[in-house]
Design goal:
InterPro entries: Beta-glucanase-like, ConA-like_dom_sf, Glycosyl_Hydrlase_16. By secondary structure, this protein is α+β, with helices and mostly antiparallel strands. It contains 9 helices and 21 strands. The termini are far apart.
């Protein structure tokens, strides 16, 4: 019989004795637990002669404690310093209780992808932008559902001309007209959405912008809150700059890294489109166990002549910080353009040479833009990631996207899920 069996047998016998004992008969004394701890006198040599290495333990412990406290204090100071002590005065407070006020907002109507190659057709249709008690809704919809254009016509044999029908807001007819052709890969934009801006109506130079919004959920949706220059003082994009307060992707972060659990801020700047140095001025913030489509969050910008930073929910939770100073140098210097030799012809043209400001081109008035894009061919959705159903450099990228609608369309919920809801917009000037 093994030890386990013996122990079990002894326990059974003891239980049996308890049951069979006559009433009134005292129970036998139980064995007391015997401690294995040392008792009495015993040697303690570590007290008689201390190890000299013990003092180093204390030195290391308290040394690292002091270093940790110092680093923590510096990080707190650096975060506090980056916030600044600017005083702001409210310039505009928009809660959409009076609808989409044409005195403040423009609808931008185009089909060309706005330089990013997005697949949406931006409209002034009330199905794509409307207001209710929650605020402004910017909602992507399917073109075949809105206009009666058949799936076959999306691919071939249909002409769309927004200039001819008088709805296009761009002077360039190539941004407003397309004929679907299955041979060339040109198709009618399969998704319609909306882009609203305040150009010529609500602009600012130095101040603060705060937008409270809930972001959309759905594959390949691209919500954005951003700003563009009122006048291209330094030339066409990106020479006159771009400020992205918030950009995100609607993809599920469970299978797409940096999906709708991530928001980012970016500055675009450079002498030409090939030399956009946004990679030097971009950063992001992500949250755990949830995403930005679940609830409303505040997306903000603080902009002065010495710094620009974007943030989410509060000024200490910054998504991007860029400082401007003589020590840091001009953006032309920070971009390394002065050291370039383009095709053996020397450095590229400096569009900001006439400005004495270290923050040029971010020293002019900008206006606000709110939109939900769909897809792109500029790399914002990287090829080969998250089951992306098109490649950017293909001549039929939009057709590839449309042909995969059976995969991405089921990820889009109802209008409030696949759309961006903007509860409020506040714009401040420096007092």
């Amino acid at each position: 019989m093994n030890k386990l069996s013996l122990a079990a047998s002894a326990f059974t016998q003891e239980w049996d004795h308890e049951e069979l004992r006559e009433p009134g008969t005292p129970a036998p004394p139980k064995r007391r637990f015997q401690s294995s701890r040392l008792v009495g006198e015993y040697e303690q040599p570590w007290l008689a002669k201390r190890d000299p290495r013990e003092k180093f333990d204390k030195i290391f412990f308290y040394g690292f404690l002091v270093i940790g406290l110092a680093v923590s204090a510096y990080l707190c100071y650096d975060g506090w310093k980056s916030v600044g002590d600017e005083k702001f005065c409210l310039l505009w407070d928009e809660d959409f209780s009076n609808g989409i006020n044409p005195a403040d907002w423009n609808h931008v109507v185009r089909i060309d992808g706005f330089g990013t190659g997005s697949f949406d057709w931006s409209t002034n249709d009330s199905r794509n932008s409307y207001t209710d008690h929650d605020g402004l809704h910017i909602v992507p919809t399917m073109t075949v559902d809105d206009l009666g254009i058949t799936p076959g016509q999306i691919i071939d044999g249909y002409s769309l001309n927004l200039t001819a029908d008088g709805t296009c807001t761009d002077w360039n007819v190539t941004n407003c007209a397309v004929t679907s052709n299955k041979t060339t890969g040109a198709i009618i934009n399969p998704v319609r959405s909306a882009r609203l801006d305040t150009k010529g109506k609500r602009t600012m130079k130095y101040g603060k912008v705060e937008v409270v919004a809930k972001l959309p959920a759905g594959d390949w949706l691209w919500p954005a809150i951003w700003m563009m220059p009122q006048d291209d003082v330094y030339g066409s994009w990106p020479a006159s700059g771009e400020i992205d307060i918030m950009e995100s992707r609607g993809n599920n972060p469970a299978y797409y890294k940096d999906g709708r659990n991530t928001v980012g801020g970016t500055l675009h700047w450079g002498p030409n489109t090939d030399l956009d140095m946004f990679a030097k001025t971009t950063d992001s913030h992500w949250i755990r166990h949830t995403d930005y489509s679940k609830d409303f969050h505040l997306y903000g910008l603080v902009w002065t002549d010495t710094h620009i930073y974007t943030y989410v929910d509060n000024v200490l939770r910054q998504t991007l910080y860029v400082g401007f100073s003589e020590k840091a140098g001009t953006l032309y210097q920070r971009g390394g353009f002065d050291k370039m030799n383009i095709g053996g012809g020397g450095s590229p043209f400096n569009p900001w040479a006439g400005s004495k400001n270290f923050n040029a081109p971010f020293d002019q008035s900008f206006y606000l833009i709110l939109n939900v894009g769909v897809g792109s061919t500029n790399g914002y959705f990287a090829d080969g990631r998250g089951g992306k159903p098109w490649t950017d450099k293909a001549n039929n990228s939009m057709a590839q996207f449309w042909n995969a609608k059976g995969v991405w369309q089921p990820t889009w919920g109802g209008p409030t899920e696949r759309g961006m809801t903007v509860k409020s917009v506040k714009m401040y000037n420096l007092c």
